[in-house]
Amino acid sequence: MPRWDPEAKERLRAAALELFAEHGYENATVTQITERAGLTRRTFSRYFTDKRDVLFAGSEQLPAAMADAVRRADPVLPPFPALLAAMIDVGELLADMAPHAAQRRAVIASSPELQERERTKLAAVTEAVVEALQERGATESSAKLLAQVGIAVFQTAFERWSDQPKDTDFAARVREAAAELTANLAT
Question: Given this model, what pLDDT does residue 182 score?
């Protein structure tokens, strides 16, 4: 067997999600995950720090990616349309999450510990977006409001997209959620 398996990370992620679904997040162990994947604990440690990291690996890149996308948005766009453009831009990072996104959401919803970690992740994204919007000229108060609303649009779009990723792309889900918000604000 080769020393490096290019499929190892995906095998570990799939095994973990299966075990989390079968036994619950709290009851699944790293040993069970590695056994199910047919890999070693050392291989697990190469990709993930712990079993939570299976669900959140890569999420530390999202705040900077979102803020950078806001900064790169067309300079003539007002703050909220710039944020929507940034969400669509960042959506490309989510493509490899599609196969497991709905399962991941279900596991997170089943655990208060994971829900807290998800909220912490989203708070970091919100904070980064606030800073980027201020750099574009928004006041601190407006930037906070727009970032919070924007993250709610992002979450809604992500949930809808991850439920049916083959039906439409993430960008369409962002536009759909933003249009729904706009329609509800107009009534």
Answer: 93
Q: Which residues neighbour 183 within 8 Å (Cβ) at sequence distance 6 or greater? A: none
Q: pTM surpassing 0.90?
A: no
Q: How far apart are CA 133 and CA 59, in angstroms?
A: 21
**Residue 125 and residue 151 in contact, taking contact as beta carbons nearer than 8 Å:** yes
Are residues 30 and 93 part of one domain?
Answer: no
pLDDT at 3 > cutoff 80: no
The secondary structure of the chain in percent helix, strand, coil, rounded to multiples of 5, reads 80, 0, 20
137-161 burial: b if 16+ Cβ within 10 Å, else e:
ebeeeebbbbbeebbebbebbbebb
Residue 3 within a domain: no
Let me know: does 168 contact 98? Beta carbons within 8 Å: no
- Residue 8 token pair: 């190892």
Answer whether residue 33 is part of any domain. Answer: yes
Which CATH number covers residue 35?
1.10.10.60
Least confident interval from 127-136, 164-173, 177-186 = 164-173
Structurally, the chain folds into a number of domains equal to 2
Q: DSSP characters for 150-175?
A: HHHHHHHHHHHHHHSTTTS-HHHHHH
